[in-house]
Amino acid sequence: MDDTARCPCLSGETYGACCGRYHLGTGRAAPTAEALMRSRYAAFAVGDAGYLLDTWSPSSRPDRLDLDDDVRWQRLDIVRTEAGGPFDDTGVVEFVAHFRTTAERGRLHEVSRFERAGRRWYYVDGTAG
C-alpha cells in the first residue's frame, strides 16, 4: 500500500504515518491495545499475514494464517476500550469491522483481549458478538 494513501483503519492519518510504520518491522510497536487493534485491522486490509502472526500472543498464535483474497475490509468502528494504555498489562477492544466479498457484505463484531509483554502489545483472542 502506498504510504501516502489514507490508512485503512480510518484514523484520518496516512498509512505511512499510522499503521504502516508498525507493519514495516522497524522495531516500532503499537503503544496501546487500541493502536494494535487498528494496525491488525489494517494488516488484514493490506494482506499482511506476517504482521498478524507477529502480533499474536505466543500462547494462542496459530501455526499459520491464510487470508482470504476475496474479502475486502471496508471500515473499522471502535465501540469501546477497557484499559490497554501504555501503563497497563491487559486491555480489551470491542470493534465492528465491515467487509465485502464478491457474494456479500458483512460485519465482524468482536470483543478482543490484548496483553502486554515487555514493551509490546499482543492480541490474545476474541469473542464474536
Low-confidence region ranges: none
What share of the residues does DSSP label as strand, in percent? 25-35%
The spatial strand order of the largest sheet comes to 1-2-3-4
- The CATH C-level name is Alpha Beta
Q: Report the principal-axis shape.
A: globular
Count structural domains. Answer: 1
Derived structural class: alpha+beta
Helix content: 10-25%
Structural summary, described in words:
A hairpin with a 2-residue loop joins strand 3 (105-117) and strand 4 (120-128). This protein has 129 residues and is of the alpha+beta class. Helix content is 19%, strand content 35%. The protein contains three helices and four strands.
Features:
129 residues, alpha+beta, Nuclear Transport Factor 2, Chain: A, 4-stranded antiparallel β-sheet, globular
Concise description?
It is built from three helices and four strands; from the N terminus they run αααββββ. It is of the alpha+beta class and 129 residues long.
